[in-house]
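Data card: per-record layout.
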Amino acid sequence: MRDSTDHTELASLGWREWVHLPELGLSWIKAKTDSGARTSALHAFDIEIFERDGKQRVRFKVHPRQHNDVETVAAEAELIDQRHVRSSHGKRTFRPVIRTTLLVLGRQFPIELTLVCRKRMKFRMLLGREALRNRFVVDTGRSYLGGRKPARGKPPRRTTTAK
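The structure for this 163-residue chain is written out next.
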């Protein structure tokens, strides 16, 4: 069955983008768009599942910057699921899943994220096909179509999309 979405109306993302997760207190995270991954994944560690007011929650820490294990953001979210996920290396892991808001290209929408240690990976976040579907097409030859992370004290630099 073909997807009837008119792809000419979808916004383009580069193969890597700076994204924000405002509900988790995380901004300017470099994410790799990965249509091979079903669910998006976020680098997390010290993951702890607990119960509050009859609901399961998860608290965790994130090193949001590549090559920086000093800067740490603590976050907490409702646990919506736990799933077995097979990595690109074929390793199967059992991961907590949360739902949060993603902000990219000026668009804000809910996404599911699996939490997993990605400290050996180049990107702290993967943006999977469920988040991309019917919202974006990926231009594999371009990067940062939503702009680049600003230098301290400067406004964000927007990458031109004109060809």
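Known properties of this structure: Residues 21-132 form a domain with the Cathepsin D, subunit A; domain 1 fold (CATH 2.40.70.10). The longest helix spans residues 129-132.

See the next section for split statistics.
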